[in-house]
Specification:
By secondary structure, the chain is α/β, with parallel strands linked by helices. It contains eleven helices and ten strands. Helix 3 (103-113) crosses helix 4 and helix 3 runs parallel beside helix 5 (147-159). Belongs to the ABC transporter superfamily.
Length: 281
């Protein structure tokens, strides 16, 4: 048993093989810290989605262990229910997650299934809808919602159950820039609440700005994990995962080579930070 209270989830030699023999996860060792902002990155087919389904208990590891709050996950009905109360997953395609007739029914479904009294559940549903700015379409059928609205409802599905960890698979996929920024803002608020947030993304600029740590997957194994500053300077591992350096880092390095900025400056994470360096030189 893991005695470190700072670790919310631990993976020990975690493996998963599909029924057709495909080895999707090939022995992952990883510790996830409480309250961490963790970006999981890699090329399509690297195992990200399978990993997420395993962290949520949808997939049972073929080998290895998954520990939550220091205890091995029990794959009984009760054990999985206990895990999913605290570890929620928001799928890349919200249509695979939403099924109720209306928004309010959709968000109420999970918390009522947990046995929360109806009056208390209704109050919590209202609070979450207000927090995510979806009260205006509370009675709207979920299949009539826009992509950004569906994504917010999918997050509300999980948030209403007061989770300790939220997993988001490509949260900005297929969204226009306005709704992508809106979802980014919601994710930032989740982190501010102290919720452990894990997301997969191909957006290196977002990961550099947001993540405490980046984990790179290739063919079902972890090939690198470190702070974004370190990971995004390693061109070889970025190439292996079909990723590029963040634009702000490329520009910073160009300005350093040109003698415009000092290469000993702390790596900027945003364009605003880089602009400040330029204005202060």
């Amino acid at each position: 048993m893991n005695g470190n209270a700072d670790i919310i989830m631990e993976l020990e030699n975690l493996c998963y093989t599909y029924e057709d023999g495909t080895e999707a996860l090939k022995g992952i060792d990883l510790q996830i810290r409480r309250g961490e902002k963790l970006a999981i990155m890699g090329a399509n087919g690297s195992g990200k989605s399978t990993l997420f389904l395993t962290l949520n208990g949808i997939h049972k590891p073929t080998r290895g262990k998954l520990l939550f709050n220091g205890r091995p996950v029990e794959y009984s009905r009760k054990g999985l229910l206990d895990l999913r109360k605290k570890v929620g997953i928001v799928f890349q395609d919200p249509d695979s997650q939403l099924f109720s007739a209306s928004v309010v029914q959709e968000i109420s479904f999970g918390i009522l299934n947990l046995g929360v009294p109806e009056k208390e559940a209704a109050k919590r549903v209202e609070e979450v809808m207000e927090e995510l700015n979806i009260l205006l379409f509370r009675n709207k059928p979920t299949h009539f919602l826009s992509g950004g609205q569906k994504k917010r409802v999918s997050i509300a599905d999980i948030l209403v159950m007061d989770p300790e960890m939220i997993i988001l698979d490509e949260p900005a996929a297929a969204l226009d820039p306005k709704h992508a920024r809106m979802i980014d803002g919601i994710i930032d608020k989740l982190s501010e609440k102290g919720i452990t947030v894990i997301l997969s993304t191909h957006d290196v600029d977002r990961a550099l700005k947001w993540a405490d740590r980046v984990v790179l997957l290739e063919d079902g194994i972890v090939i690198r994990e470190a702070k974004p500053d370190a990971v995004f300077q390693e061109e070889e591992v970025l190439m292996r995962t079909n990723l590029e350096k963040p634009a702000v880092l490329k520009l910073f390095e160009t300005l350093c080579r040109a003698g415009i900025l000092n290469e000993n400056l702390k790596i900027p994470h945003t364009v605003q930070e880089l602009e400040q360096y330029i204005n202060n030189r």
